[in-house]
TrEMBL record:
Identification of the protein by name: 5'-nucleotidase domain containing 2
Organism for this UniProt entry: Oncorhynchus mykiss
Organism lineage: Eukaryota, Metazoa, Chordata, Craniata, Vertebrata
Signal peptide boundaries: none
Keyword Transferase: no
Keyword check for Hydrolase: yes
Annotated family: Belongs to the 5'(3')-deoxyribonucleotidase family.
Swiss-Prot/TrEMBL keywords: Hydrolase, Magnesium, Metal-binding
Domain of life: Eukaryota
SUPFAM superfamilies: HAD-like
InterPro entries in the cross-refs: HAD-like_sf, HAD-SF_hydro_IG_5-nucl, HAD_sf
Molecular function, one GO term: 5'-nucleotidase activity
Pfam families on file: 5_nucleotid
Amino acid sequence: MSCQKIRTFSHALWQTSKSTSLCKVYVASCGSVASTGPTTQIGKCCEDEQSCGSDLGIQPVRSTAIPTSPSPANHRHVASNNQRVSPTLSERAFTTELQIDSKTYLWSRYNEMKRLVHDLIPPGVCNLLNPSTIYANNEVDLDEVDIYGFDYDYTLALYSNTLDTMIYNTARDFLVKHYKYPEGISKYDYIPNFAARGLHYDIQKGLLMKIDAFHYIQLGTVYRGLKPVPDHEVLELYGGTHHVPLQEVSGFYGKGPMMKQFMDVFSIPEMTLLAAANDYFNSNDIEYDPGHLYKDVSVSAFNKYILRGDETYAVLHRLASHGKKLFLITNSPFSFVDKGMKYMVGKDWRDFFDVVIVQADKPHFFNNCGKPFRRLDGNGDLQWDKIKSLDKGQIYKQGNLFDFLRLTGWRGSKVLYFGDHLYSDLADLMLRHGWRTGAIVPELEVETRVVNTEQYAQSLTWLQALTGLLERMQMHRDLKSKEVLQDWLKEREEAVTKNLFNPHFGSIFRTCHNPTFFSRRLCRFSDLYMASISCLLNYDLSYTFYPRRTPLQHEAPLWMDQLCTGYLHSHK
């Protein structure tokens, strides 16, 4: 949303919270929870003894029952004008003089909040996100970048959605024919949109799940095979908690002793096959070892099919024509890369690149200096000569980053490398070598379309407002109030935004209320992220990307729930 729209929206919310019955309801209780705005406004309301909120079935009360604000200055102000003394904090907490029906009061607040959220979503709030935008986690000045590096799969080469079905079918048939798994597994067809990138798989328990940035399993997203696991069973399986310890959830490269995190886009059909095979064994009460299944599926043959490349050519041509040096480091074999690049860029594709390295064995390429470079001839055959330089037009295999740095001299922030795998492509470069990194996240296109919908805007705004309402009304402890609050809590936990994305696991960027494990790694290992490298075509090569200052919890005076509830301060 544009800055002007944000300012207009925020101002409208604040004005409404002061002037409508939202403010009046709270003023009726004269600060029993917290002030709804500037204390002078509240003080005047109480001084004038207005019957605030009477239209909602709430009996007006005088300010002797509950003070207008926790501020001592305002208490003295009211007392001096009305000859009343504000009660103490303990009196305020346990007062019983407020003659209202608590259930009616809470639902009135709820309904007023609903109306406010609905009415104050401004026209044009949707369709503001451009799927071709490049997002910055860190400040990057492209004018300082002289060398651009690329991974191949899902970076230079994009693939069609039908590829997932082809990969799944190939791996499923390989599992049955080569490893002699039951023929019944062959009856399981690929399920589009079942799995999502960034999920974790418990290798020994055979469970697929979504974990947030704080290592908590998102209840409702744990699957044994193709069936969800009830929340109470998840808690039993993990010792009464849904927290997974750091040493188990993931190592530096996404695999711990118990868990594997799937970060590759190609891993989506792999996760679906694991779920299908698990489902077959569980549905037929066949005893099996989930650990063996995981290993067998992971080594199945996953062939790849090219999608398009006209935008790839445009990006490479633009960078090269501006005098930028380009290099390619990929784990794919030369024959596969050569075929794909000829299709996308042309038979002279190697003229764009100063260095080409295939079968690099990332991430070990970036952290292990043991493997030397080998040169390939035009047919892809290995040569025996010692590598003393990395020359343009040649193809190299394996090697390591330490020799790469020594032979090229390309170091530090003047290098920007793009890849889709946060661990294999980007982690070491960001943390150990100081290169700039760009993450390719194809899912951004789909998720941006969802975020741009009115349904999402309404749902998210209401979720924030409901959270604020729950936080501020939780001091109502009578039985009827607790029942209302439980209804609200249940509504909040249903996470209405989840089903707008993947129906089983939701957005790859968020659990119900927290960033996902994937999101945390995305912010940690990438300076920039985007849907595809073609997004570079939208920016000048001297453009500077500036990250937006995302408020920390103590830096956010105008969260949406505070705007909607009319509170700018938290009180006790």
